[in-house]
Write a structure and sequence with these properties.
42% helix; seven-stranded parallel beta sheet; Rossmann fold; 246 residues; alpha/beta
């Protein structure tokens, strides 16, 4: 087994299910100790922790709202207290919600931007002071920024902000030898998108050169690459993992 993350510690936010859970398991398979952050799904988070421990890995579940500055700091502090260091941060926590223009409200806007953008900033802010040289931050964006479907104005804007922040942070943190990149998944089969089924017959699948929806493991593999030394000369990049869908 490739132990490219042996001795390293990673935090994955929103890791109780879906893409986040798959990312956490992938990093753990590479030898990293994991902090599984969750906002409300403690049972699901513990399932991920158990799965990692059952394969000989190390993991803890830590509750925390990433959009709350103090709670974001507490997530990072928990990683340091348990494992003594921090090397990898995956800002995966996010809210996926659409609304047509006439349905946009302050509540809708702030709910999405607070988690998708402010939470990313607070987690990164808390992490960089504890991160070792050579650290890696991966932000989870969305291929929706190149698709821009109707009803996605607020969500698409939040993920466009993720792209911009990724570029800015890569420049700000380069001097600390911390790399910052983003992965933009296309439509991916998770609990949250279960209503899409396997995607057969979907117009989105018909527009995807590789002919299917993504799987959480597809995204996890890309994140693991960016977190590894194999991507040691890569920073400020937005890697679209969408099967070619644009």
């Amino acid at each position: 087994m490739d132990q490219k993350f042996q001795g390293k510690v990673a935090i994955v936010t929103g890791a109780s299910k879906g893409i986040g859970a798959s990312i956490a398991k992938s990093l753990a398979a590479g030898g990293a100790a994991l902090v599984i952050n969750y906002a409300s799904s403690k049972t699901d988070a513990e399932v991920v922790v158990t799965a990692i421990k059952d394969t000989g890995g190390k993991a803890i579940a830590v509750k925390g709202d990433v959009s709350n500055k103090l709670e974001a700091k507490a997530i990072v502090d928990a990683a340091i207290a348990e494992f003594g260091r921090l090397d990898i941060l995956v800002n995966n926590a996010g809210i996926y919600a659409f609304s047509p223009l006439e349905g946009v409200t302050e509540e809708h806007f702030h709910k999405i931007f607070n988690i998708n953008v402010l939470g990313l900033l607070f987690m990164t802010q808390a992490a960089v002071g504890k991160m070792h040289e050579g650290g890696s931050i991966i932000n989870i964006g969305s291929a929706i920024t190149t698709m821009m479907p109707p009803g996605s104005s607020v969500y698409s804007a939040s993920k466009s902000a993720v792209e911009t922040i990724t570029g800015v942070m890569a420049k700000e943190l380069g001097g600390k030898k911390i790399r910052v990149n983003a992965v933009n998944p296309g439509p991916t089969q998770t609990e949250g998108t279960a209503q899409m089924g396997d995607g057969k017959g979907s117009p989105l699948v018909a527009q995807t050169p590789l002919g299917r929806f993504g799987k959480p493991e597809d995204i996890a593999k890309v994140v693991s690459f960016l977190a590894s030394e194999e991507a040691g000369w890569v920073t400020g990049e937005i890697l679209v993992a969408s099967g070619g869908l644009r």
